[in-house]
Amino acid sequence: MNYFILVCADSENAAGEPISAHALATQRLKQRKWPLYRNTRNRRHVSPGDQCLFYIGGKKENRQSIIGRAVVVSVEPWSHSKRSVDLPSFLDESPASVVHIENIDFFTSPLHILPLLDRLLLTARMMPRWGSALQGGCVRIQQCDFEILAPPS
Q1: Where in 24-64 does DSSP place strands (E)?
Q2: Domains within the chain, CATH numbers bracketed
């Protein structure tokens, strides 16, 4: 089993209007699907049974926070015959694959990551530029980091 942080950043719709990362991530989690794009780091390493956390990047609500966790059920290549994971007005790019998730646990309070940075292996060697550790859309983490960031469900 592997552990990942799936990262969502602020975006904008086709009209150029801003969409918060939190709103976008929440919409994806409600569908139980998370898109992985062609250039998403680690996208080929996500497999059924893996555990995922969901990180909100950007500058809007719940930024720099983990908002939930889930288990990967399957990963399917995306085809143009399928409806996109995100609303059509969100993004132009089609995903390379779609992660299907179950056992979604929305945290009652988002877990702000800043107070935990000095305890995480993920960021230990990257201070003060810890944000670069969370770039790439899909970050593989160690089990010990997962346990710090994911309260028991």
Answers
A1: 33-36, 51-56
A2: 3-149 (3.10.590.10)
Question: What residues contact residue 131 under an 8 Å CB cut-off, 6+ apart?
Answer: none
Count CA atoms within 13 Å of residue 134 on its CB side.
Answer: 24
Whole-model pTM?
0.89
Two structure tokens written together for 65: 């926070």
Neighbours of 74 (CB within 10 A): 13
pLDDT 10s digits, 5-16 = 999 998 887 778
Cα separation, 107 vs 29, in Å, equals 12
First to last CA, the chain: 18
pLDDT digits (tens, 9 = 90+) for 92-139: 678 899 999 999 999 999 999 989 888 988 886 766 677 667 778 999
